[in-house]
Each structure stands twice: as C-alpha cells, then as structure tokens.
Amino acid sequence: MLPTFPRRRGCGHRVAAALLSLISLAAPALAQQYPARPVKIIVPFAAGGPADIYARFVGRRLQEALGQAFVVDDRPGAGSILGTEAAAKSAPDGYSLLLVSNTHTVNESLLPNKPFVLMRDFVPVAPINYSDLVMVVHPSVPARTLGEFIALAKAEPGKLNYASSGPGTPYHMAGELFKAMAGVDIVHVPYRGSSGARIDVIGGQVQMMFDAVTTMSEHVKAGQVRALGTTGRTRSLVLPDVPTVAEAGVPGYEATIWLGVMAPKGTPPAIISRLNAEITRIVSSPDVRRDWATQGAVAMTMTPDEFGKYIADDIVKWERVVKISGAKPDQ
Prior knowledge:
CATH class of the largest domain: Alpha Beta
Distance between the termini: 75 Å
Oligomer: single chain
Helix content: 40-55%
Largest sheet: 10 strands, mixed
C-alpha cells in the first residue's frame, strides 16, 4: 500500500496562485514573441475592392512593424460567407485574421442560417476606416440628377438594374435602402466582387451602382460614369460638387462602408491587444490620415471592447434595414 501524507491546508490555493502568476508572466512574453511566422489575413471579398486594398496596406505596415509577413488571402464568394467560414475554422493562435466590413453585420440578419455567428465565433481586434459610397449611372442613362433618375425608375418599374458585389454587401444594402426610401422598383444584379460590378457599370451592361468613393471617384472624374449622389451625412471632400442622396431627393438617406479586423474566438488576449495597438498606431499616423482623406476614407480607432460594441450596434442597425427594405439574399 502506498503511504499517505497529510494534506497541508492552503496548499491548493498556493498552487493555484502560482499557476495564475505563471500565466500572467507568460501573457506579455507571448505578445512580445508574436508573430514568429507569417500571418494570414483572410479577405472574404474579391481582389481590387476596398477590403482587399486596405487589407494589403495595413498588412504591409504590420509587416514593417512586427518583422513578419502579413499575407492577404482573398477568398470571395457567397457574399463573404466562404472566406468567413474558413476564418472561423482557423486555429485561434493569432496567425489567421479576418478582414470584416458591414457586409458581416448585415449577414447576421440577412443570412441567419450561415455556418457561423459573428459575435460567437470571432473576437474584435481593431477597426480600420470608413468611407461614403457614391451612386453612379452609365452616361447612357437619360438622367442627369437623382430626381430625374427616380422619375425614370418610377415611369419604368423593373426595367432599370443596379449592380453590387454580392448579397449583403454595403453596395447591395445601399441599393435596397434606396429602393425602399425612394419608392422605386429597380433590379439587383449581384456579382462575385465589386470589381466585376464596377467594370460592367462602366461598360454599360448595368445602368447603376452604389460603390465606395475610394474606388469609384476616379471614374467619375474621368467621365466614365455620372455621379448622382454620395451617401454620407455631408458632401464628400473627394466629390464636393456632388450632392448627398439625402439633399438631392431622398431625405434621411445614409449608407457607408467600414472595414476592420477580427480573429477566431479563443485567440490569446495578449495577441489581440498587440494587434490593436499596432493597427491603431498605423491608422493614427498623420500621413496615413492625410492620404486616406484624399481617397475619401476616414481612419477609425477603438479598443477591442469598443470595436465589439460598434459591431454589435451595427448588427442591430442593419437588422432594422433588412426588415424595412424586405431585402432577400437571392434578390
């Protein structure tokens, strides 16, 4: 028979305290050692759009700061579902990140049966920026103002089309919100990404599109498309001569696109904190803010907890819009 020893009172508490002490010491060390190998940023949208462009920008700056490659992995499809599901299934070790936008907050109500739940399967890291959209038409459309476009759409219900980068994306929801608030019937034409939608509007295959100011303004200035309105509360500094949709005929209308970073649930808090600090430093840089302003983008800075609340509030906001507009994923 093995000998037994009397158990010392308080021994268990001392062991637990020692373990907690070791964990608290290990957390800063983990953050300092991170990253020890390349980090993947999964972008669930097509190459060439704002999400891809700004993910690559932030990835380059993170690489410069942290000494490891931050590789953008574009995985478009199903309105961001394919790439997001892949990110949700990734190891929660800080080496797989997800580029998120308000497409994700829309999809929480638009696609309730998707294989993940945003706030259950991911944790917030940091926001990046937001920008207005611009409503553009091909020059062949016989409407030079927003009022004329609305009159045309009402005179020919169901005959005008608008392109988007896919169901649930800000471009889609901006169109559905416009339809509901302007009282018009125009047909949604979803694409796999914003680049294809943009090309076909410029080429005249589709009449209209809501697109990010950051990517469409150059085509407006080149005369390839006609801008009828921007979607912010005030006029865009990039297109100051273009009225907002609200002032041009749809009072109260507002829609933007925002971008940020999340990580799989269970990613160590020390790593989340370090990434938040580095991304905040990058987007707070005066040269970055200045350059982004010329593109129509505004930098956003928040703690992980603040960003989490922002995302949760956005989910509620778009749930109301989905309900009011009657938007469907197959429309």
